[in-house]
Amino acid sequence: MLNEREILSTLEMLKNENLDVRTVTLGINLFDCASDDPQRFQDNIRRKITGLARDLVAVCDQVGEKYGIPVVNKRISVGPIAVAAAPFQPDDMVAIAATLNDAAAAVKVDFIGGFSALVQKGIAPGDRALIEAIPRALTATERVCASINVASTRAGINMDAVVLMGRIIKEAAALTADSDGLACAKLCVFANIPQDIPFMAGAYLGVGEADTVINVGVSGPGVVKKALDRALESNPALDLGNLSEIIKKTSYKVTRVGELIGREVADILNIRFGVVDLSLAPTPNVGDSVGEIFQSLGLKGIGVPGTTAALALINDAVKKGGAFASSNVGGLSGAFVPVSEDLNISRAAEDGLLSLEKLEAITSVCSVGLDMVALPGDTSAETLAGIIADEMAIGVINKKTTATRTIPVPGKTAGQYAHFGGLLGQSVIMPVNNEKSENLFIRRGGLIPAPTHSLNN
User: Fold this and answer.
1) What is the model's pTM?
2) Which of 74, 203, 268, 299 is 20 to 30 Å from 155 by CA-CA measure?
């Protein structure tokens, strides 16, 4: 239970420190919509989504107004569509994406995730059809998000899928060249993807999940920064152990707020409550930045020596505080470092403090990976595949989730800017070691075997 002082501090978080519930995401299983007829399948999914989600936005707004806690985004996760729509061809998959988009628009949610495939050990015909459809599907829709899992600790890394995704990312960027490759901002490539992510673009409903479920994503990087700043103003000599404890206690309160909202929304909709994702999800707004937390801890900015250790401290404290606050934690849970979506991180990249190589290094301890990274437009598909493979290896060997959301911006070079708008923000384009010669390692394909701890049962 929170005491009076903690309640007052939580109210201060809401009023002045950008505390909100970042997303309430309704997961919907579409497997019972399966059909061998594309039109019947689309009719079935449209009917199910609009039926189950028709009151989602209104209920989130109602509960948020009741407690004075805004629910910023209302979203839907489905899928993986590659399984539900396994008999169909790429053209059919594009039409299915349009139906998902129309259903999402009809119920007024921000995004719908789950245009997804799980190909960590091999690519089935339905998987390949969906992957081939991704560039056109994400170009033609506003709300649809895609995720492809190409690796896992138990299966290894499917390099055939990695190479394929390098080409798909290039095609998606080319089709949205007039918007700086925006389609790529709605596409994540994963290792060890969780089945209950509420955050986009990775959200999908796993095969082992309930028919419908409410998952909540909380936020609060601004809250954590302010808590650290207050403590250090009172006692500048606080060591890192003390600061970790402050982050942990703050995360506890943030998690309790998220679970309160999520459970009430679930009760009103008569839908099972799933998990709270503890991730510190930033926005491009000043005061709502993960990058600023590094400065409060004493670093000049994210990317300088000490960054990886600081991020490990933040991630661990967030997880400990959230796990104590709720027994229903899941998703990604930790700290995001999306370059374009965090104003402070974007500026660190612009100032040369944060390189692509350092960003890859810190993903060994963060919750996601190379997230919303703008790259030069001439970055080859093979180089993109190499970047994906490196990131997948970090996840596979360390038994954690990693992902890439990279955007080769057509017609632009390192040092120029990419503008994506809204929560997706903007960023300087980061230089990349784009070796022009043929990358025989990447082109060999096949399966990089799983490490020996994949045999643990």
Assistant:
1) 0.91
2) 203
